[in-house]
Structures are given as C-alpha cells and as structure tokens.
Amino acid sequence: MDFDPRDPYSRYARARAADGPTFVPELDAWLVARDADVRAVLRDAEAFSSANALRPDVVPGPEAVAVLGSVPSGGPVVVTADGDEHRRLREPLTRGLSPKRVAAAVPFITGRAEALVAGFAADGRVELMGRYARVLPGEVIGHLLGLDPADVPAAVEGSYRAEDLVFRPMPVDEQVAAAQVVAGMKRMLDAHVRARGGEPGDDLCGEMIRAIGPHATLLSNLQNILLAGHLTTTALIGNAVLHLLRRREQWELLCERPELIPAAVEETARYEAPVQGFRRVTTRPVTLAGTDLPEGAAVFVAFGAAGRDEAAHHRPDEFDITRPPGRHLAFGHGAHACPGANLAREQARIALETLTRELPGLRVAEPVEMPPNLIHRSPAELFVTW
C-alpha cells in the first residue's frame, strides 16, 4: 500500500514535493498537502464544497441501517453544510462555545481533571486513554450540553460506536450491536431535548434548540457536536502526552516550566493533528497549484501534512515545545474553522498542568499503536507508569 493511514507522513512528504495535488487511490481523492494549498482550499468554500467532508470508509449494512432508522435523524449537519445553511447551523455553536462560556467552564474542567488523576494516582500504572483522555472531554461536552452526568458514559460510548460504524469494517452482528448503542445515544438526546419543553435554557444545547429545526436536524447536529466535542480533544490530549513522554527532556522541561504548557499544546496540534484532514468536492472546474481539477473532483485537505510543511514551519519533523509561536492548521481555517478550538486547547492545557504537577515521573510503559483513522488520530491505548 502506497498510503498507510497508520503512518501517513512519508506519503505527505512526497505529496508536498510534487508540483501540485496528487491523486491517491487509497483515499480516492486528490491529496492537498502543502500549507499554502490547504489554506487556499479552506478559504474558498464556494469552489470546494464540504458536502463530502465526512465520507464514510465503510457503508453499514441494511441490518444496522434499520436499527439506526428507528430513531429520528437526518438533515444537514454543520460540518457538511455550505453557504447560508452552514452559517445558520454554525451560529449557535459560536455562541454556545464563546470565549466567555469556555472560561466559565474552566472550574468544572479543572475539578474533573484533578478528580480523574486522583482516582488512579496511587496505582503506579494506568491506561491513560481509557481512564482520562476519553473521559474528561466527554464529561465536559456533556456539561456544556446540560446532559445528566449519568448519561454521559453512554453518550461517549455511542460516539465511538458511531465512528466505528463508518470507519471500521465489522461483521454484521457487530455492526448491529454498534448501531443499537448509537440508537440508544440518539434516544437519550431526543429525551433530553423534549424534557426542556418550551424552556431551552442558555447553554450550548439551548442555543441549538432555538436556532436549529426541524427536530430531526437538531438531533443530528446534537450528535455531531457531541462527537466533535470530545473525540478530537481526546486525540489532542493523548498525542500531547505521548510525544512529550517519547522525548523525556521535553516532558521534564515542561514539569520545570509550566508556562510552556500552552506552547506544548500548539506544538502537539501542529506535529500530530488530531484531525488529519477533511474531504472537499469541487463545485466547478478549478485550478489548484497549477493542477486543473474538474467539477466533482474529491480532494483530501490534509491538516496533518500542512503541519509538517518546511515552507511554513522550521524543522517541521521535530517536536519542540520551545518553538516560537506560529500558525498551524490543526483546527482548520476559514468558514469551517473549528468553533470548539478554544475549548479543546483549555482541556489539553489543564490536562498537562494536572499531570505534570501530580505525576511528574510519568513514563510510557508499552509500545503504542496509532489506529488507521485519519479523522481522529491518537493512540489506541497509552499505558503509562510512574
């Protein structure tokens, strides 16, 4: 295989060296790998539609589809919408995830981060993805949506099973089991919305209820923000800890100089983008970096490749938390830039502050595997000791 999603960086490097976008059969798309070209695509939402942004790698079978069809769903979601429709769906997210609302959530994030670490601090060993990185972001987005804390674990599990359904080949019985978990998550969101009646509230969920209709479209966007609100942050936290611990001197420097933590978060996002890229489709013939693309051409806009572009970043293949601040594309750019970027940054910052303070002796205990998933790239498991 020329393109290995477990380690895409060598293919990214060859794509950046080419004269323009290169067609990659494994992606069934033109790979856009240079920082300047990625920015050009993301700035031109009219010529490069987001309609195929989340094209599945796997199409669930009819048995799983029948299970999913038992719950209201449908309508556009913000990540795949364009133009006025995209603006309408994005506005409540911008309000619900404003800097003021993120700042108001920091005490909750800090309290839960400290409690989670305290829960395993005496053990000497933990699988950090399952005990922390997958837990905190789910609790935080659940808090912002006003979910009952008792419902959050099922919501998190439903999110991962939804991802499995479209990105991991499974036999029919496993597909049906995953679909049942996803359907249960959707029913929980449905009940949560209906319980609010005529009083939506002033949280993120309330903003979405007031702005988005009909009901099925609202549920689809709630599911979308639930997934996007924690899967990407989980990946960012896992990647940060992994790369810091793989370079012991960087971890120890961070323990000594916690003021570098925000820079460490940005360096992680640049070096190992949690979302490696999204798809776009051309709405008309367009020329990109000297390459003529016809209408309907699929492109894969690789944030992960842009982060390693030597034209945009000095020593791009080195992980260095002392690097001077620079612009990266890990959270997107243009109209579709991630509305939850500040929330993700705050959670990663608080995670590193808590772990460096409470467990400075942290070390990777076992080899780490990166699953073949370009939508959320992070360790499958991260066993650490101290």
From TrEMBL:
It comes from Actinomadura algeriensis. Belongs to the cytochrome P450 family. It comes from the Bacteria. The keyword Nucleotide-binding does not apply. The keyword Oxidoreductase applies. InterPro entries: Cyt_P450, Cyt_P450_B, Cyt_P450_CS, Cyt_P450_sf. Keywords: Heme, Iron, Metal-binding, Monooxygenase, Oxidoreductase. Pfam families: p450 (PF00067). PROSITE patterns: CYTOCHROME_P450. This is Cytochrome P450.
